[in-house]
Amino acid sequence: MLSIEDCIALSGLTEEEIAAIAEHEHIPRIVALELGHYFLCSPNGKKRIRRIIRDDIEAAREKGDFVHAAKLKLLLQHFIAHHACVPTLRQDDRR
C-alpha cells in the first residue's frame, strides 16, 4: 500500500504546492495531490497551478495575512524554477 508520502513523491509536487491547491479549491490534500498531478501532465496545467498560487497570494493579501502571502510568493518562485515554467510574474506579484 502506498503512503501519503509515497503519493507526494510520485506526484511531482511539493507538500506546499499541494497545500496551495487544496487551499484554493477547498478540497482535502489527497484530492489536491491528484488534481495537481493531473495539472502537471496536462498541456496548460503548469499555468493553472501558477494561477492557483497567485489567487492564494491575493486572497491572503485581502485578509491582511501578509506572512502567508510572502510564503506563497516564495512557493510561486520555487514552482516556476522547478517546473521549467516561463516566468510570467505580473507587476503586482513582485511586491
Describe the 3D structure.
The chain has 95 residues and is mainly α. The chain has one domain. The chain is built from five helices and no strands. The chain has helices at 4-11, 15-25, 29-41, 45-62, 66-82. Helix 2 (15-25) packs across helix 4, helix 3 (29-41) packs across helix 4 and helix 4 (45-62) packs antiparallel against helix 5. The longest helix is centred in the middle third of the chain and has 18 residues, at 45-62. It is globular and about 40 Å long.
Shape: globular
Helicity range: over 70%
Strand content: under 5%
Q: How is the quaternary structure best described? A: single chain
Low-pLDDT regions: none
Measured distance between first and last alpha carbons: 44 Å
Which structural class fits the helix and strand makeup? mainly alpha
Tell me the number of strands.
Answer: 0
Profile the largest sheet: none
Radius of gyration using CA atoms only:
13 Å
Total number of helical segments? 5
Q: Give, in order, the helices and strands.
A: HHHHH
Q: Kindly report the average pLDDT value.
A: 88
- Can you tell me the number of structural domains? 1
Please give a handful of descriptors for the protein shown.
globular, mainly alpha, 71% helix, 95 residues, single chain
